[in-house]
Design brief:
Elements (H helix, E strand, L loop, with lengths): L4 E13 L6 H6 L6 E14 L4 E5 L6 H9 L6 E6 L3 E4 L12 H11 L4 H15 L1 H5 L10 H12 L6 E5 L7 H16 L3 E5 L3 H7 L2 E6 L2 E6 L1 H10 L16 H5 L1 E8 L14 E14 L3 E7 L5 E6 L10 E11 L7 E10 L5 E13 L36
Parallel strand pairs: 3-7, 3-8, 5-6, 6-7
Antiparallel strand pairs: 1-2, 1-4, 8-9, 10-11, 11-14, 12-13, 12-15, 15-16
Helix pairs in contact: 3-4, 3-6, 4-6
Length: about 400
């Protein structure tokens, strides 16, 4: 069976021009040649994406994620290598890029839909669905020129058009966070519907939790090279533990980072209510002690943080000393920072804790991604992630209403 997308040996080179000759004399003196520097945005990328698979592309700015997506979409042509696709493509890249500001929203729906390959009769058939998806605000303004639209209305209408192309392969580049929270939920629901229908989805994003939420596989790029593929949690761990250090200007080796030389985590201790215990019950206290070593420095701008992740990698809870208003002051030498949750509200499950040391501005000293396991055993049969103290009572003859907001079937 052929894959939905096959990327074999793909590299992409750009020419970076540092000078611009404006006069005929300059051009003659340089023989008509303008000096340039070669920049390889992608180098030897090999990825096979099966039909129905959802894959997330991770990487820091300039890693080549969007370039690779544009090559798959056919917007850019690879310098070397080959890309093969099976089925109809829809690319959610620069939403509304084809809009004409002096045309109305209605006219732009037909124009943009045609650019994306839809027939006029198909656009007319789906017009009401497109406008409804974009929201009430867009629906009221649909016969007004789009130059009077807000930026949120603009991208919502662009998204609504693009997802109605009815694609076999959906390419998404940092656009699932458009609009307000309600619209984002609609976008994610639409992506989930595409997945249920067996369509192939490629997502470019900086949001690791989004990759966990919508993707079955992930890939990480670093300076144009593919450095990890596999399960989302494993790739995200590689991305955060290794690649993100490079964003501060250091190599992939943490020992080369000037921030890492200032402070590091020496160990993490999970303290249980009783000696010898290795599991917690809901409602019991959890204490995490993070050992640190400032390696001879006195550090005033330091923040310690924790994040608890569920079995699928979803973020359950996160905080740090700065957010909680409990500044650490100046640290020097070695010691430990303790986080204590007096009443752990988690239900049965295996959790992993991320710990970090960083500046208030977010520059990392040291970071352990989902490195510390914590096991919770719940004796009850409640389901979910958190344990809520719930009271249940029956009120014979009572009617709903009079105490709060009432919802009826069909609302919302």
């Amino acid at each position: 069976m052929a894959a939905a997308v096959e990327i074999e040996g793909v590299s992409k080179r750009f020419r970076l021009y540092h000078e611009k000759f404006t006069s005929l004399k300059e051009r003659v003196l340089h023989g008509g040649r303008i000096p340039y520097e070669e920049f390889w945005a992608l180098q030897d990328i090999d990825v096979r994406i099966e039909a129905g698979e959802s894959i997330g592309l991770l990487g820091h700015n300039g890693s080549g994620k969007s370039t690779l997506l544009k090559c798959v979409a056919g917007i850019l042509r690879p310098t070397t290598g080959e890309i093969r696709t099976q089925g109809r493509l829809a690319a959610l890249l620069e939403l509304g890029a084809g809009f004409q500001p002096d045309l109305t929203g209605r006219e732009n729906v037909f124009l943009n839909g045609s650019i994306l390959g839809m027939k006029r009769v198909d656009i007319a058939r789906r017009f009401d669905e497109i406008v409804h998806f974009a929201g009430d605000e867009v629906e009221r303004m649909i016969d007004n020129q789009v130059k009077f639209y807000s930026s949120g209305m603009y991208v919502r209408l662009g998204f609504a058009i693009a997802i109605n192309v009815d694609p076999d392969i959906l390419l998404v580049d940092e656009v699932l966070a458009v609009g307000d929270e309600a619209f984002q939920r609609k976008c994610l629901d639409k992506v989930a519907a595409f997945q249920a229908e067996g369509r192939t989805i490629i997502v470019v994003t900086h949001a690791a939790d989004l990759v966990r939420q919508v993707c079955t596989r992930a890939a990480a790029l670093h300076h144009g090279r593919l450095v990890a593929t596999g399960e989302p949690n494993d790739v995200i761990r590689t991305f955060r533990d290794t690649l993100m250090i490079g964003d501060d200007g250091a190599d992939d080796d943490p020992d080369a980072s000037p921030f890492w030389h200032h402070a590091r985590i020496t160990g993490v201790e999970v303290v249980y209510p009783e000696p010898g215990r290795t599991v917690l019950l809901p409602g019991e206290p959890l204490e995490l002690r993070i050992g640190y070593d400032t390696r001879g420095s006195r550090i005033e701008d330091i923040v310690a943080g924790i994040a608890i992740h569920g079995a699928l990698g979803q973020l359950t809870y996160g905080t740090n000393s700065h957010l909680s208003g409990q500044e650490l002051g100046t640290l020097s030498g070695t010691g430990a920072v303790s986080f204590r949750v007096p009443d752990l509200p988690l239900l049965d499950g295996s959790y992993r804790v991320t710990v970090s040391l960083h500046t208030r501005g977010g520059l990392r000293y040291d970071h352990w991604e989902q490195h510390v396991p914590v096991e919770v055993k719940a004796p009850g049969r409640d389901v979910g992630v958190v344990r809520l103290a719930t009271e249940i009572r029956v009120e014979p003859g009572a009617e709903v209403g009079g105490r709060g907001e009432v919802f009826r079937r069909g609302d919302g």
